[in-house]
Amino acid sequence: MAGQPIRVVIADDEPLIRAGIRMILISDPEIEVVGEAGDGREAVEAARAHAADVVLLDIQMPVLDGLSALPELRRAAPAARVIVLTTFGERENVLRALEHGGAGFLLKDTAPAELIRAVRAAAAGDAYLSPAATRHVVERLATGREVARAEQARTRVAALSEKERDVLALLGEGLSNADAGKRLHMSEATVKTYVSRILAKLDCENRVQAALLARDAGL
């Protein structure tokens, strides 16, 4: 994607929020807002029509909510990376969205610089999990269902080699391939190879699902 702007679609039913996000994103010369949507159906159509690289998707929207729109969006625009916009009050929905292939999530009141970092990371193929929101979600969802998920995650992770578990743990921290390579004294290409192997062994569709699995397993 070198030399080409990152094409972004903003989907939120509140015009003021869309306008604020747009103003933040267009301050970066390498990001182009190519479309906006006020509901999930419009989001699917806009992502397909504008060949979006990244979609910022609100969960609570009319006509078709974000959770329902996500699988349709991924079918209509498979190359688009979806970042879920949320609030602390929607923790359970966030996990469901990420399990269905979202590339990360951000709080709606996130700092402008973090929003731009998230879009850049998603466009580059990396997961972006807002650190504050991730801690909140993981810490507050210690219910019986999460305990069962943790046991299942540990069973799945047991199939990995020690080095693969080390890489997976860093995915759980949200590190990019380059940063993980520095931490483990590996080249970025080597880390990328490990990530591909990990996704295949764990039957994870993307880095976000692997990162959540790492957290569930307590890595």
Task: Describe the protein.
This protein is an alpha/beta fold and 219 residues long. It is built from eleven helices and six strands. A six-stranded parallel sheet has the order 2-1-3-4-5-6, sandwiched between helices. Strand 1, helix 1 and strand 2 form a beta-alpha-beta unit. Helix 2 packs parallel to helix 3, helix 7 crosses helix 11 and helix 8 packs across helix 10. The chain is globular and about 50 Å long. The model has no long low-confidence stretch (mean pLDDT 85). Keywords: DNA-binding, Phosphoprotein, Transcription, Transcription regulation.
Task: Please supply descriptive tags for the structure shown above.
219 residues; alpha/beta; WalR-like; 11 helices
| Straight-line distance between termini | 33 Å
In total, the number of strands is: 6
Shape: globular
For the largest beta-sheet, the strand count, sense and barrel status come to: 6 strands, parallel
Taken as a percent bin, the fraction of beta residues is: 5-15%
Percent range for helical residues?
55-70%
The class by helix and strand makeup works out as: alpha/beta
Radius of gyration: 17 Å
Total DSSP helices: 11
Could you state the order of secondary-structure elements as H and E?
Answer: EHEHEHEHEHEHHHHHH
Q: pLDDT below 50 for ≥5 consecutive residues: which ranges?
A: none
Strand order of the largest sheet: 2-1-3-4-5-6
Mean pLDDT, all residues: 85
Modified residues (4-aspartylphosphate): 58
Pfam family, one: Response_reg
Keywords: DNA-binding, Phosphoprotein, Transcription, Transcription regulation
Domain HTH luxR-type: 153-218
